[in-house]
Amino acid sequence: MRFLTAGESHGPQLTAIIEGLPSGLPLTKADIDPWLALRQGGYGRGRRMVIERDEVQFLSGVRAGRTSGAPVTLAVENRDWRNWTEIMSPEPGGEPRKKALTAARPGHADLAGGIKYRHKDLRDVLERASARETAARVAVGAVALKLLGELGIEGVSHVLSLGEIASEVPFEWSLAPGIADSPLRCLDPQATERMIERIDRAKAEGDTLGGVLEMRFRGLPVGLGSHVHWDRKLDGRIAGAVMSVQAIKGVEIGLGFDAARRPGSAVHDAVFMREQRYSRDTNGAGGLEGGMTNGEDLVVRAAMKPIATLMKPLPTVDVVTHEAADAARERSDTTAVPAAGIVLQSVIAWVLADAVMEKFGGDTLPELQERVRTARAFAETY
Ligand code: EPS
C-alpha cells in the first residue's frame, strides 16, 4: 500500500490518497472523525483548535460504507482558510504578502527550508512543515486502524511524561479505555495535575513543552516484517515512520535505551512451552525480534521536542535584512504532546497495515482475514 498527503496549514484543505486497500473494508466517517477529534484535543493547545472542527470527507474509493478497492481520497477542510484566502492565493501578485515571515524560528524548518527552496517569505516553508499536516496522517492512520481492527489488532497511545513530570502508573490494557478521559491522555491523575500546572506556567512564560509518548499494539500475527533485508525490517520501518512526525527527536522499541544498561540475561525474553503454546513472561523486545513481530505486544516510545514557535522568542536573523531579530511569533500551542500520541499511533498503524498487506495480500477483506487466520493457526501448532 502507499499514500500521499498534500495541503498547507492555511490552505483550503488537507488531502490524502491511499492506494492498495482491499475491497470490502467497512469504512465510514465514524471510523475516522473520532480520531481527528482526539488529535485536536489535549490541554495546552492554542486558539487554532477552536477554529478547526476536523472531519473527513470521502472523495473516492468508498461507496455504501465499504471500500471498492479503488484509491481512497480523504479530505479534511481547513476552516481557518477563509481568513487566509488572499495570503494563500495561488494567483500571482500581491507580494510582499501580508503575514510574510522572515525571522526564521530556531528549531523550525524555516531557515534550512528557505535556503533549500530559495524562498525569502518563509511562509512558503512553514505552511507545509506545520504539524497541521498530521491531521491527514491521522485520517490515513484511522483507515489503517480499521483494517487492523478487522483482523483483531488494536492500538493505543498515552503520555508517559510531559516536560520533567513523569507518569508513575504503568500501562495495562485494562486501563486503556480511560485514557481518552484524561485531559492529557495520561494514566496517572496526580501527574496529570502537575503537568497541567506546568503547562500553565510555560504558557505564562511564553515557553513550550515536549514529552514522551508510548504506543502499544496487541493481536499482531507473528512474522510481519522480515530479518532478510534491511529495508524489510519492521523496527526500521516503524522508527522511520515515527521519526517522520513533526517534532519527534527520539524513538525506542521495548526496553529501548534501557537495554543498553542491562546484561543480556535481564533484557531477552525467555521462551516456555505452556499448554502447548509458546509463552513468555517478559517483553523487553517490545514485540519485535529480528525485524519481525513475534506475537507479543508492540511497544514503541517516542520523544517529542517542545514546539519551536515560542511566544517569548529566541534570537535569530531576518533572512531579508540579515539583521538580528526576534524569532517570528506565529500563533501556536504551548504543548501538543497528547495530540502527538494520536499521530504516532496512526503512523505506526499504517506501517503495520502495510506489513499485513505485504505478507498476506488479498484483493478483498475476506481473503485477507482467511489468510491471517491460517497463519495464526500455523503459528500456534508450530
Ligand atoms: C502549527 C501552528 C498552529 C497549530 C498548528 C501547527 O497553527 P496556527 O499557526 O494556524 O495557529 O495550531 O497545528 C494545527 C493547525 C493542527 O491542526 O495541529 C505549526 O506551526 O506547526
Automatic annotation (TrEMBL):
It catalyses: 5-O-(1-carboxyvinyl)-3-phosphoshikimate = chorismate + phosphate. One of its GO terms (biological process) is amino acid biosynthetic process. FMN binds at residues 128-130, 246-247, 290, 305-309, 331. Reduced FMN (FMNH(2)). Keywords: Amino-acid biosynthesis, Aromatic amino acid biosynthesis, FAD, Flavoprotein, FMN, Lyase, NADP. Pathway: Metabolic intermediate biosynthesis; chorismate biosynthesis; chorismate from D-erythrose 4-phosphate and phosphoenolpyruvate: step 7/7. It comes from the Bacteria. It holds the Pfam family Chorismate_synt. HAMAP family: Chorismate_synth (MF_00300). Belongs to the chorismate synthase family. This is Chorismate synthase. It comes from Deinococcus peraridilitoris (strain DSM 19664 / LMG 22246 / CIP 109416 / KR-200). The gene is aroC.
